[in-house]
Amino acid sequence: MKAMTYRRYGGPDVVTLANVPKPTLKPNEVLIRILATTVTSADWRARSLSMPGGFSLFGRLVFGLLRPRQPILGTELAGIIDAIGPAVSRFRVGDEVIAFTGGRFGCHAEYRAIAEDGMTALKPENLSFEEAASLSFGAMNALPFLRDQARIRRGDHVLVVGASGAVGTAAIQIAKHFGAVVTGVTSTGNVALVQSIGADRAIDYTKVDFATTGDSWDIILDTAGTVPFKRCEMSLKPGGRLVAVQGSLGQWLGLGKPSRKSGKRVITGVAAPTPEDLRTIADLAAKGELKPVIDRVYPLEDAAKAHAYVDTGRKRGSVVLRVVG
Ligand SMILES: NC(=O)c1ccc[n+]([C@@H]2O[C@H](COP(=O)([O-])OP(=O)(O)OC[C@H]3O[C@@H](n4cnc5c(N)ncnc54)[C@H](OP(=O)(O)O)[C@@H]3O)[C@@H](O)[C@H]2O)c1
């Protein structure tokens, strides 16, 4: 099958078209013919080893010490079930599905095998394959951070920094689903987008620093890595939580964290979504509460161009790869 592969770390041009064996099916797996996938910030990090402050060595431990362990990138997909293993009961050949492979990658190809009880769900019928492929990366990270770690509640005031990216656009819509009042921090060109997906208010960070507005929030979710606790301490309400999605090593180690007396918390680490979360996300999309945001679409073979665009760090929502067999 066709796949976009990388055999060494580096710039977008390390990603090249290759012919690789089609996955073989285990009894509990489904084989998905991929119609669309995306290039995300995770693909950029795994390809380039660009890691948040302090994590450069950690990248090699995760992705492969000398060379990439998994040569095919891609964390999410939408497609059609092409074959099923003999023990599969939840899916049938021909089902239209989405899947999230996260750190296991492997979606920048014509086919991907996934366990039927893994992160696979029926594709919402109201979405195209390209829209459906863009659904999970941002939401599978935003949902566990907001619901399980920050314990978002109806009426909470939530600030999303980096509101136009994949995680940010999902976080705004998921926070609205939970009944929060949401402010998005974004650049001038993305203010209208952030409002269009439900933010009650947008702050243009090129003009206003949210930390100087005198306003405060229950949850500040930072996807841009620009909000150490010190910067937002006064912008958190009593009991407030800073969710450092792009956390630094210092934040992971608990350096500079608030005193227990303050009641404020810093949450960081890696999101831990479940297969049930993917079904929740698909349901939200089916109801129109979660709308995928697509920035650009490239053919699979142009994955290197898509990577170059993602490398700018300025994409809006998702960058899709269309897979034509
Ligand atoms: N901890 C985890 O488990 C986890 C999971 C997923 C992602 N992440 C990390 O989260 C980060 C965001 O991921 P993503 O996929 O959402 O990235 P993305 O889609 O590339 O979006 C990044 C966004 O950041 C915005 N931005 C850049 N500088 C900013 C600033 N100074 N203030 C506010 N916004 C700014 C950009 O918007 P403008 O053009 O408007 O500036 C852009 O839309 C990445 O570092 C990724 O590695 C962590």
Description:
By secondary structure, the chain is α/β, with parallel strands linked by helices. It has two domains: 2-135 and 292-322, Quinone Oxidoreductase, Chain A, domain 1 (Alpha-Beta Complex), CATH 3.90.180; 138-267, NAD(P)-binding Rossmann-like Domain (Rossmann fold), CATH 3.40.50. Helices cover 25% and strands 26% of the residues. The protein is built from ten helices and 15 strands. The strands form three sheets. Strands 3, 4, 5, 6, 7, 14 and 15 form a seven-stranded mixed sheet that branches. Strand 11 (217-222), helix 7 and strand 12 (236-244) form a beta-alpha-beta unit. It is globular and about 55 Å long. The structure holds NADP nicotinamide-adenine-dinucleotide phosphate. NADP nicotinamide-adenine-dinucleotide phosphate is lined by residues 40-41, 45, 141, 161-162, 164-168, 185-187, 190, 205, 223-224, 226, 245-246, 270-271, 313-316.
